[in-house]
Design a protein that fits this description.
8-stranded mixed sheet; 398 residues; alpha+beta
């Protein structure tokens, strides 16, 4: 049995875990850090399966962790990409109202942007056409600080620059905790002893918390986001979003021109039948039982079943999905859309059915648990990593 000793062990090699390791190396040089990642490389789940957008922070409640970290994180991410020669571009984006009922929400976003110190410009139909000739809407706002990048490349660079020992193929199956520190066993029998543990396990974070003996008080419910690629990318110049419904934590189907020049269309949001279920055919009974056993899930279903039914319909019917896209981009046809890789969002849900809307970081003796880090976590990963690292360093104190 191999034994490894360090100061901090980080469970999870996505962008938040790697940002935490990177921050530890800068806040406390010489800190020995081991990162345990169950996959064969970094960023294999949420980090590597999103639309690659550097979010401005316009959607988030002023003063929330999301707002603070996204606004700061966007500028830091652009700087990090520039310093490390990672492909990126500050493109700006349009948020477009296509129905009169959306206009009050659009105006509320203008105010929220100003409260979060984000530059926004209000546009009429003619100005929308100046930015996006094929997009139709009654009104829009232009958010200048939104951009795009390759988050997989960011994660790889963070791993290399952190100075941490990254152990891939290291699934955690047992955690022991004493007053003096923690011991983590991986599936291959390796035991890592550390003074503190950081849980950045994403889709598995609530399970890791329970392995450590802590009650996370949330359950991770997986929602799959399905994307298409646009076969006529010339229809879209940049990034185009609908006006989001504040009752839901999802932004709706949007159009994203990526670093490579292609245009991603999506995602929808449907319940996944496995925590890493990237298609309807990916079914894991243990994950389904975990979801079904959580009272909060049934309360979510009762509250939002109409919205959920619509998302499932758009998942199963390409025609219905195309109609949703046509609200923003009337020229699109079913033939213009080809299936692309899906992603799964780790959504924390409270027992009462509340969808946790902000980043959720909880501490216990010798441990720090990141229990909710959905979008814009990739954008905000550098400031989130510093916050988690500070808490981990505090946990090292005798």
């Amino acid at each position: 049995m191999e034994r490894v000793h360090c100061d901090v062990v980080v469970v999870g090699g996505g962008i938040v875990g790697l940002s935490t390791a990177y921050a530890l190396s800068r806040l406390a040089p010489g800190t020995r850090v081991v990162v345990l990642e169950k996959e064969a490389g970094p960023a294999r789940h949420q980090t590597g399966r999103n639309s690659g957008v550097i979010h401005s922070g316009i959607y988030y409640r002023p003063g929330s962790l999301k707002a603070r970290f996204a606004v700061k994180g966007a500028s830091e991410m652009v700087k990090f990409c520039a310093e490390h020669d990672i492909p990126h571009e500050v493109t700006g984006k349009l948020i477009v109202a296509t129905d009169r009922s959306e206009l009050p929400r659009l105006h509320a976003l203008v105010q929220r942007g100003r409260e979060n110190a984000i530059p926004v410009r209000e546009l009429g139909p003619a100005q929308i056409a100046d930015h996006e000739p094929e997009v139709r809407g009654l009104a829009a706002i232009h958010v200048g600080t939104t951009g795009i990048c390759d988050y997989g490349a960011v994660a790889e660079r963070l791993a290399g620059a952190s100075g941490a020992e990254i152990r891939y193929g290291s699934a955690v199956d047992l955690i022991g905790r004493r007053a003096s520190g923690v011991a983590v066993r991986t599936a291959d029998g390796t035991v890592v002893r550390a003074k503190a543990l950081v849980n950045c396990a994403g889709l598995q974070c609530d399970r890791v918390a329970r392995l450590a003996g802590d009650d996370p008080a949330v359950r991770i419910i997986p929602f799959r986001g399905e994307y298409y690629d646009l076969t006529r990318p010339s229809l879209v110049r940049g990034l185009v979003y609908p006006v989001p419904d504040p009752a839901f934590p999802f932004l709706g189907v949007h159009l994203t021109r990526g670093i490579g020049g292609g245009v991603h269309v999506g995602p929808n949001a449907v319940p996944a039948l496995a925590r890493e279920g990237y298609s309807w055919g990916a079914v894991r009974p243990r994950d389904m039982a975990s979801t079904a056993a959580w009272p909060g899930m049934w309360r979510v279903a009762a509250r939002h079943w109409r919205y959920g039914a619509g998302e499932i319909h758009r998942s199963l019917s390409k025609g219905a999905f195309t109609q949703a896209v046509r609200r923003l981009l009337p020229a699109v046809t079913e033939d213009d859309l080809t299936p692309a890789a899906a992603g799964v969002r780790a959504q924390a849900v409270l027992r009462d059915g509340t969808l946790v809307d902000d980043f959720l970081i909880r501490e216990a003796p010798r441990t720090v648990h990141v229990l909710n880090a959905p979008s814009p976590a990739a954008t905000a990963s550098l400031p989130i990593g510093r916050e988690v690292a500070r808490r981990a360093l505090a946990a090292l104190a005798p």
